[in-house]
Write the structure tokens for this entry.
Amino acid sequence: MTSPSTLRIGGMLVGYYRLCPRKAWLSLRGIWMEQESDTVALGRLLDGHSYDRSEKHLTVDAEAPDGTALVGKIDRANLRNGVLHETKKSRSCEDAHLWQVRFYLWLLVRNGVTRSDGSPFRGQLDYPLLRRTESVTLEPEHMEELAMTVTSLRELVTTETPPARLGKRAFCARCAYEELCYG
Ligand code: SF4
């Protein structure tokens, strides 16, 4: 089980927390059911077959203002253009996707990596099945919110009981933890 000293926060966990703190709590307990889902498998397949392979996967480590270790495993990075890409199947959890990409952009800022004009990298959500893309920017208020999210996740690690269910059954029907929460 994760403890505050072993906690290493990644983009998916941040996205989970933004969607539902209970979902983040369950994953912090080592229950990563989503990794087995068709959605994630399809995402990997799309990532491997739909894009220019000259763009690189990128892993970035950083430290939050409160000292928490952060890690980002970025689908594809176009370093020359200063753009990070994240591939998703659908827009059903777009807010979580946005925060996942903002988190990756923040990791670069935490490492002092910027575009040539000194501004943060930009992000792009790619939805190949929908033939759509969505631009993502990192603003100062996003960085403040990300720092607060990290602190909240740090507190969540030591919380013995899970946060309340969302109570939105239609939304929860798409979640890998649905059976755990409502079964
Ligand atoms: S099923 Fe609903 S309440 Fe349970 S973790 Fe998923 S989103 Fe949260």
Notes: The chain has one domain: 8-182. The CA atoms of residues 70 and 134 lie 24 Å apart. Strands lie at 8-10, 56-63, 69-78, 83-87, 122-127, 132-136.
